[in-house]
Amino acid sequence: MTELAAALGVLRRTETGQSVADAVLLAAHDLLYAQVPRHLGDSSMRRLAEVLVGRGVIPKPGDYEGQWWLWWPKSGHGPCRDCGKARSLTRYSARFGHEYRYLCASCRSAERQQIAEQASRFREMIAPRTGLHPAHIPAPAAGSHPTEAAPADSAAVAVPPPSGRDWETFVTRLEELLAALEWAGFDLPHEWDSDFDEQEGALLFAALWRGDGGVGVEYHPHRGVLALQPFDDVTGEWPESYSLLEDSIEIPVAASGEQAVTAVEAAAGEAGLLDAAHVLVADTAPPEAKQEFALRRFRRIFQPAADFRRLPLADLLREVTESEWLSAYLNWVVGMDGQDVAPDIVPNAAALGVAAWCWRNNTAVEDHHLDTDVLMARVNIAVTRVTQQHICPAEGIDWDSIKDALMDPQWATADGTPVHSLFGPGWTEVAATVIAELDRWRQLDHEVLGPETTLILMSIGGSTSYTDSWWGQGRWRSICRRIIDDATAAGLPLPPPYDQHGPDALLADLNAPDRVSDPVLDWLIDPPRAGDHMPSGLRMHHVTRPHRHRWDPYWLSDSTP
C-alpha cells in the first residue's frame, strides 16, 4: 500500500504543476499496473498515461503483456513520433503487426499513402513471377454493380469466416480508403459495426458524421465494394441531422494500393463530401425552427472560442461585436454570402478561405491586378498551395509560416516565375497589405477566437460564391470533367495538344492547372464561342455551384388530421 500511495502522490504532484521526471512518472505508472492489473481501466493509470504521451514516452508493442493500448489514450497532445512536432495525436497502427504509435494527422496521412504505394509496388514485382491472382469473389446479388459480377462459369463458393487478424486488416484498409473523408472533417468511428455472410462475405458499416451531416458507409471487402449512402434517421435519435447524400454511390475498391484510394477520393469529391456542406432549412419549417437552426449554427461557430477563452458565450460574443473589422466579415462572409455553409472544419476549404480573404480581398492585390485572368489564376493557385501546407484540422492555421512563405523572394508560380516580380513596383503595397491581413487574423486566432473557431470561419470563407470555381476544392475534378464533356458534346475542339491526346489526358493534367499552358488554362476559364446556348467555362458554368442539402427533420411535418 505504501508503494501505491507513492505512485498516487506522483500523479498529484504532476497535476498540481510540480516538476516530475519522465522516469519517475513511468515508474509510478508501472507501480499502479503491478498493484491493480485487473483494473486496466484504472483512472489513475489513464491519467499518468496521458501525461506520458504528452512527453513522448510510449510503451513498446509487447509491454504490459501487449495490453497497454486498453488504457492508454486514443488521442492526446505531444510530440509526434515521425515529425517530432508537438501536435494533437491519435494512436495509430497502419497495418496488423505494426506497433501502436502516436502520430499527428499529417503524418498519419503520409504514412497511409506511403504504405499503399509500397504495397502496390510489391504486388507489381511478385505478380509476374508467382502468377498471383485475386481470390475468388462470390457471385453478387441480383441488381448489383456490373463491375462486381463474377464470371458466368464460376460456381459460388462459401467464404470462410474471417479471423481476428482478417477483421483488423479489413478495418485498416477501410480507413485507408476513407482517408480523404477523414481529412475533410468526418469522424471515423473507433469501432465499426460488422456482419458476415457465407455468400457475401464480411461487412463493415457505420454512419460518418461531420457536424450534423451524416453519411452511411458499407464496406464489402470480399466483394471489393465500398458504398456511400444517404443517412436516414429512422430511429429519431438525431433530430438535428441531415443527410449529405441523396443517392447511394458504389465504388469498386478491389484494386490494391493507391488506385482504390484515389477512386474513393474522386467519388467523394464529385458528391461534394470533401467540401463544406451547404444546408438550407426546408420552406415548410415554422419560423421558430428556422430561428433555432440559425442559433444552433451560431453556437457551433463560437462555442469553441468561448471554451478556448474560458468565457461565457455571451461575454465572448460581446467582445467579438466590438471588433468593427471582424463584425464586417461575419455580416458579409458568414451571414450573407456564406449563410448556408455548415460550421464545420474542412481544411482545404479553410485554405481557400485564407487565399480569398487574406490575399485577393481586403488587400492591394486587386489594385494591382495582373495583365490576364490566366496569370491571376496561376498566382491564386500558388497561394492556395502555400496555405494548404500550413493548415491542420487539429492544430489550426500556422499564420506565421504562411506569411513567411508568401513573403519569401523565392516563392514562385509553377513555371518558376517569382511572384513578387509579377507585380513590379506594386509588390511593396501588395506585401504590406497581405501581411496586415495575416497578422490581423493571427491576433484574432491567438487572442480572441482560438484555432477551432478560426478554422470554421475560414472554412466558411472558402466556401462562398467567390471561390466556387477555384482550384483546391474537392469538386474540382468533376467541375473540369463537366466543362470538357459539355464542350466536346457541342463540337468545340479541345485546345492543343489535347485535340490530339483526348479529353482524358486533359482532365488528368487539370489536376494541376497551373502546370498547363496559358492557352489551355484560358480555354478552361472561357472556352471559345462561350455564350448563349454554348458551353461555358469556369467563369460562368453552373456546375461550379455547390451541392445544397435540405434540413427537413421528421418532427417538422404537420401531422394534424
Describe what you observe in this structure.
The structure is a single chain. The chain is an alpha+beta fold and 561 residues long. 46% of the residues lie in helices and 11% in strands. The protein has helices at residues 2-15, 22-35, 43-54, 105-130, 164-177, 179-183, 258-270, 287-309, 313-321, 324-337, 347-360, 373-388, 399-407, 419-423, 427-461, 476-489, 498-501, 503-509, 518-525; strands at residues 75-79, 86-92, 101-103, 193-197, 201-210, 213-220, 225-230, 242-243, 249-252, 278-281, 391-392, 396-397, 548-551. Strands 4, 5, 6, 7, 8 and 9 form a 6-stranded mixed sheet that branches. The chain is globular and about 85 Å long. The termini are far apart.
Q: What ranges have pLDDT less than 50 throughout 5 or more consecutive residues?
A: 126-154
Would you report the number of β strands? Answer: 13
Radius of gyration over alpha carbons? 26 Å
Terminal CA distance: 70 Å
What class, by secondary structure content? Answer: alpha+beta
Give the overall average pLDDT: 85
Report the sheet with the most strands, covering strand number, pairing sense and barrel closure: 6 strands, mixed
Quick description:
The protein has 19 helices and 13 strands. The strands form 4 sheets. Strands 4, 5, 6, 7, 8 and 9 form a 6-stranded mixed beta sheet that branches. Helices cover 46% and strands 11% of the residues.
What descriptors fit this protein?
19 helices, alpha+beta, single chain, 3-stranded antiparallel sheet, 46% helix, 561 residues, 6-stranded mixed sheet
